[in-house]
Amino acid sequence: MDMKTRHILECLEADAKITHEKIAIMTGLAADEVSKRITELEDTGVIRKYKTVIDWDLAGDENVYAIIELKVSLERSVGYQALVERLYKFPEVRSVRLLSGQYDLSLTVSGRTMKEVAFFVAEKISTLDQVQHTTTHFVLKTYKEDGVILHEQESVTRLPVTP
């Protein structure tokens, strides 16, 4: 990938609503060339989706999020792929990642309540033959999502002290 195409991707990653004209100014390419490259990147699957980062707490969302770590045993000829394909088909699963270290996989899941998430893990994840062990971490607060700070530090003002 050449540097101009990489720059286009970085611009889109930072702001999915940026216009092709602004990218053209930033990269030194013509706007029609930027449009052509973006179409190629979409067609080849390099650009998978355009996304908006939402502060769900601020929006009043009541969903509960959890990170589930899985220790798994693999089928000899299949590896992780068959299990991963099964896991990412659950609508509750927001992301699936292969890890190094003590656990093999990490899932981010969502549900309406902690109980709903717990039952999902107990009934759908833990019962899979390849899953040996799970650890569930409920997300209490998200400070930064996809590079965007959601909660700025509150400024503390001190009251003046007078004798």
List keywords for this structure.
163 residues; flat; two-stranded antiparallel sheet; 6 strands; alpha+beta; Alpha-Beta Plaits; Arc Repressor Mutant, subunit A
Architecture of the largest domain, CATH level 2?
2-Layer Sandwich
Q: For the record, what CATH class of the largest domain applies? A: Alpha Beta
Uncertain segments of ≥5 residues (pLDDT<50)? Answer: none
Strand content: 15-25%
CATH homology superfamily of the largest domain: Lrp/AsnC effector binding domain/regulation of amino acid metabolism (RAM) domain
How many domains make up the coordinates? 2
Distance between the termini: 67 Å
Describe this structure in words.
By secondary structure, the chain is an alpha+beta fold. It has 2 domains: 3-43, Arc Repressor Mutant, subunit A; 57-140, Lrp/AsnC effector binding domain/regulation of amino acid metabolism (RAM) domain (Alpha-Beta Plaits), CATH 3.30.70.920. It is built from 6 helices and 6 strands. It has a 4-stranded antiparallel sheet with strand order 2-3-1-4. The radius of gyration is 22 Å and the shape is flat. The termini are far apart.
Describe the secondary structure blueprint for this structure:
Elements: H1 3-14, H2 20-27, H3 31-43, H4 56-59, E1 64-72, H5 81-88, E2 93-98, E3 105-111, H6 114-125, E4 131-138, E5 144-145, E6 148-149
Antiparallel strand pairs: 1-3, 1-4, 2-3, 5-6
